[in-house]
Amino acid sequence: MLKSAVGAAGALAVSPQIIRAGKNKPGDKLNVALIGVGGRGLAHYDSLADENVVALCDINEKQFDLALKRFPGATTYIDWRKCLDHKGLDAVVICTSDHHHAFVSNWALNRDLHVYCEKPLAISVEEARIVRAKWLTKTDKLATQVGMQRHANANFARVREMVRDGAIGTLESAYAWGDRKIRREKYPDGTGAPPEGFHYDIWLGPSPYHPYSPSYFEHRPGVGACLSWNMYWDFGAGQIGDMGSHTMDLLWNAVDAKLPTSAEGNREPFNPEVTPVEAEIHFEHPANDWRGPIKVSWYQGGRLPASPKKYVDLKGIDHGAMFKGSKGHIICDFVSRMVLPFGDNADMTYYKPRAAKDLIPPVGHFQKEWINACKNGGKTSCDFEYSGNMIEQMLLGLVAYRVGKKLEYDGAAGRVTNAPEAEKWLKREYTKGWTLEG
């Protein structure tokens, strides 16, 4: 439960339900479990410093030394399944490897815990649907956020405003891309044994057994550790689950889409062990209350949409997005944007920028937006509905890549309607003893 900073002896316990109603007192602190204390976990130390971090969990015991210096007195755990049953928890921050994300999130929701999960929320269509559906039954009392922290950049709001307010006329299509290329041919061969205090069996968790290799855990300067394992099908979703989550968010925030009605991939030859490096995937989305049907596209590994003008080199934007409208294009990255009108009638007289008072308010500190929602209620920018819809679309694209044909998709039922062979790729097979519903 929340414990007041006034002192543990006289602490007033406040339930998450009351918190979401906005009745907590100033000074109340969340009791938080940080699961995955190295890597991305380090990025949460400062934002959690004003809360009660009462539990720390990691499969590498060597990570606890630094974490306990920041959060002395916290109980340490190796297995997140035990950590989630720590008495008195209010919230959990999930910084595990990607193949655990949906599991920890769903288990935490089952315990009525607020959840911050690093991206991606899931690595299968089924996982995304299960976690989203679970949270949608608890929106009145739990706050969720997926770690797409670039969403706090002011440019996300400015791009959304320009698309919505008609700077390029009527929206027709949108494109996002990332140029990262990390090639692997297959799972690494087994090499040696895990170091002392490194619990490889727990790291594998729900995924099929693969022999230990130190190459899964290489740390290179300036490169996230996830780039050593997230390209393998059993551990991640490759670039779609990594920078694809950040970059598609820039597009997703502006188009108000939910689930696509189709997905079609064009890519390099299928590899049954490793996700694609080069790929382009196209989705069809139905109309909503402010625009007609649109096509949404994702490109990776050097593939790009066609530039609207020869003098605009999209290769200069490593991760970016483009919106095509009836009167021009918006081209952007995470922090900047440009408008390129086209046609004799694209004189911009039809577009009136918003007054300062009408601008979308800033997100502020991304992690603390979630902390504030845990305590006081309110909506977060990247909750499990918004993020769940986005990653379900992207993961459906990977299914289209596997199958090699255009898929017609029933988003309400979560079914591919024209390719029975695709159904098995919407879900994962888990190691015996592991379940999403714990």
How would you sum up this structure, described in words?
The structure is a single chain. This protein has eleven helices and 17 strands. The chain is an alpha/beta fold. The protein folds into two domains: 148 residues, Rossmann fold (3-Layer(aba) Sandwich); 199 residues, Dihydrodipicolinate Reductase, domain 2 (2-Layer Sandwich), CATH 3.30.360.10. Strand 11 and strand 12 form a beta hairpin. Helix 4 runs parallel beside helix 5 and helix 9 crosses helix 11. The longest helix has 20 residues. 46% of the residues are buried. The N terminus is likely disordered.
Mean pLDDT: 93
Number of helices: 11
Q: What is the C-alpha radius of gyration, as a whole number of Å?
A: 22 Å
**Using DSSP, what is the number of strands?**
17
Q: Tell me, what's the shape?
A: globular
Order of SSEs = EHEEEHEHEHEHEHEHHHEEEEEEHHEE
Question: Any idea what the CATH architecture of the largest domain is?
Answer: 2-Layer Sandwich
Determine the fraction of residues in helical runs and give it as a percent range. Answer: 10-25%
Instruction: Give the biggest sheet.
Output: 9 strands, mixed
- CATH topology heading of the largest domain: Dihydrodipicolinate Reductase, domain 2
The CATH C-level class name of the largest domain: Alpha Beta
Corresponding CATH superfamily of the largest domain: Dihydrodipicolinate Reductase, domain 2
